[in-house]
Amino acid sequence: MPTAPQNTDELYQALEENDRLPYGRTRTVTAEELVDAAEQLAEPVPLVHALFELQEAYTYGSEPRKSPVVFARLLNLFDEQPDVFDERRRHTLFWRFKWVADALRVLPEVPLAGLRQWLTEMRDRYEKAGLGLQPYYGQAYQLAAHIGEGTTLAYELWAGRSRTGLSDCEACEICERALYHLAAGDDERALNDWEPVLAGKESCQEEPARSVSYALLPLLRSGRVDRARELHLAGYRNCRRNPSMSGEVGRHLEFCALTGNEARGLELLAENRNLFGEVESPLDLFDFLTGAEVLLQRVESLGHGELPAAGYAGRTWTVAGLRAEVRGRADDLAARFDARNGTTAHTDRRRARLDRAPLVDALELTLRTRGLDEVAPAAPVAAPAARTAAEVPESLPELILRARTLDEQGHPDARACWAKLSTLAASRDYAHPDDPAVGPLARLRADLLSDEASRTGEKDEFAEAAALHEEAAGLYEDAGAPGDAAVARACALLAAAEIPAETSAEGADGAGGADGADGAGSADGVDSAGSADEVDGAGGAAVKVAALASAHAAMVRLHEEASGLAPHQEARLLRLRATALGMRLQTSGDEAHVAPVLAEADLLLAFATRHELGGQISGALLLRATTHALSGDLPAAVTVIDGVRDRLKAHGPAWHLPRTLALRGRIQLGLRDVQAAQADLAEGLRLAADWPADVVDTARLHADLAEVCMHLGRPDEALRHLTRSAELELRRGSRTDAYCAYSNAAQLCLDLGRVEDCIALLDSLLAEPDVAAGEVDDRLVAQLRLTRARALHTGEDLKAATAEFVALAAESARWDDDPGSHVMIAAETAVLLGESGEFGRAREAAEQALAAHARAPRYEQLSGCLRELARLQAERQGPEGLADARAHLADAGRIADEARAAEYEAQGRSLDTALAYEHGRVNAYAGEYEDALAALEKALALLGGPTPEKGEDHAGEWAECVRLTAAVEGIYLERPAPALNRLDAAVSRLTALGHTEEAEPLSSLANRLRDGG
Hints:
Residues 377-387 and 502-537 have low confidence and may be disordered. By secondary structure, the protein is an all-alpha fold. The protein starts with 7 loop residues before the first helix and ends with a helix. β1 (308-309) and β2 form a beta hairpin. α8 (134-147) runs antiparallel to α9 and α12 packs antiparallel against α13. It has 49 helices and 2 strands. The longest helix is centred in the middle third of the chain and has 25 residues, at 537-561. A two-stranded antiparallel sheet has the order 1-2.
């Protein structure tokens, strides 16, 4: 708090501002300072308000030891100066007797006699004040349930009484009744009681999050698995990282452990690491630690005790180590509670939770289902293959020779050999074979560097890949292998050409490597034709085109100067030359670049045919097909690709078939034969299962199938393919591609109305270490956050959505290279602030959007924002908000003028029509009905009546405008005759055109007017 309040007005303002903060240390410290400030004012009423705020901060900030102390001061004030407490303050005081009872109960150091003494005090005070005793009996029941004795009688004494004004809210009482039945083993009755809370019909500060956490396991036991999944996603989001809801977090961890979602459980545990040090309530901590132990015990039982786990600060933890620590602390808490209570209830409850067996084998909780094998930090690995890979030789000389032979063929199994050799060669006791056929150690090290360079290039780390290839070339020369050195240098040239724009061509030979030897050639992506806009704009594209042309020229010179090349090496050089030109065509989209690619492909095809290099033959043909596709000649591409497919089926190599079918599928999609595209891609995906995912680019197959499924109207299937594509990209280390795929999946989730799935997916991504550390592109992360904010808004979490939008608007204001995005974000932020009633801040955000719009016009978006702000302000504030609402509409009018001058055409109705309609609504909300009528009649004139050509959407807009106009005219201006004439004419016109549904609201209004309503 910058400065202490100097008078009561400043104090009340500070209390109001503090009340808007989330519970936690910041709010609590400020509340403590405000109590000090109130004491200086020497006025009892402000002090009472400050003490109430402080007790609330302690209660919901998980500091139960301090709450009773504050209440004692309030009670003394009440006893000494009862007149200070008006009816509202008196009600608050008596309500908070229950808070103190709750606080004392969760502290094992408070004797049982002290708990009962406080309940007696509460009863005496209530009786003296003439208040009903149902709240007292509610607290007595909760104490009995806590102790584990006398529960049935205490429940009947409470539940049989009528509620009073001081009873707990409906949601909290529902939860207590449900927990009673749950403890008795009656899941169904508990769930029936809980239904109003779980359905969102009853809620409060703690509910439904508390009820949801308890209901998860009963839902599973009763077979309502989907409902449990849905509530887990929504409920966890409402309690995560909150010290006062740490017990609820523990139950969500337990739920993950018992549904085969141990990896997600560890992820959530890491997200809630703060709870190990911030929970001051021993009972809440007991519940959290027990839930955490259920998870850790399960992970350890599955053989993953050495996995890293997030635990107490100050050291690193493994699952096994953290479990031992948690077990000791939770056992101690259970013993302390049981010693205080004189029962074994807490030990028994803890043992029951720890002894539960998993309730389902595997429940897919989120779109990002991961196993424990994927939790450990390790180098990315390929997905398990269905095909049994060739056995790796045990003999070191045989292994080296086998790896080189497979590499020359471009065989996927080469990678397993190189991986084993890399491990062997890195060991301190490695002894290189003295075998002329194997060659010197320098050659092996060059081979391993080439393989590493290939993998690095696949992750788009082109500068490092180029350096590794150059280093390999030097070692090849030292080892007397000039042909391999030439190939490595050509690979380095191609990788270096990628550096300026930092973008790769799908399926390109790229940095060489095992698949590069006989891979699919240049860019397979038909959808990438004319992709210059994707390469940092026209300037970046031009730089890359020049770099690729230069790389090609250098490769030609390198090829001409090389001597003694083996056929497979010369084919690799020809292939790299063709790849460079293919990538140039993909980047430029220039028709003049087509012929050179085809010429190089023909050279490669002729050479490969002459030397019977099957993999390079199919590679050359695939390059031809891709080139035809990129140039727009899809029929020619189909002819070539069909020949490649038939040849591969007859002669191999088999690992080229998945890529070939993938390319054919994309070509068919370009020809708008979606069914054929789906068949090819599905077959490609089936065959890809026989090979490592990164070699046959299974991730791309899934991404293409997602697009096809969207064309076929199967969005749920598309979503599965998108998430699978993202998972595979992550496994091979292509994190940016993975996050892009996940971003698309999240947006599709939102479009499908799967809001909680969307939020859960994005929360998981935003918690990734590289994202949290700022190592991922800031615009990509901003896109993830933007989608999340929109999902929060859709899910009606206005507070969280607004906070995220405000943060994004502040960040995007610094994007000097992208003012258009700032217009969009600031405009959406303004609307959310308006929905929150913060019209001053909304106006500031709108001003930001207007300023950015001047640099990058977004007519429709900004006009819509301003109109919506005007509507919200007039609707909420009535006549008082009219001036500000009209100011928003004046700005929207200027935007419409600018759009008209720029000859911009809006989608749907014109900006002028929308503006006139909004003028009508705004004036109607403010009671300016004559102005509203004039504006709405203008809107009707601009909109024009419905016709067969204008369609159903236009008819609906026109009918709504007529309805509002008639309502203003007939109801508010009390002119029913012209309003009825207007309505009857509109109904006749709509009915004649077959728009009966649109006519129904008009007929209803007309009947109301005729009835005098």
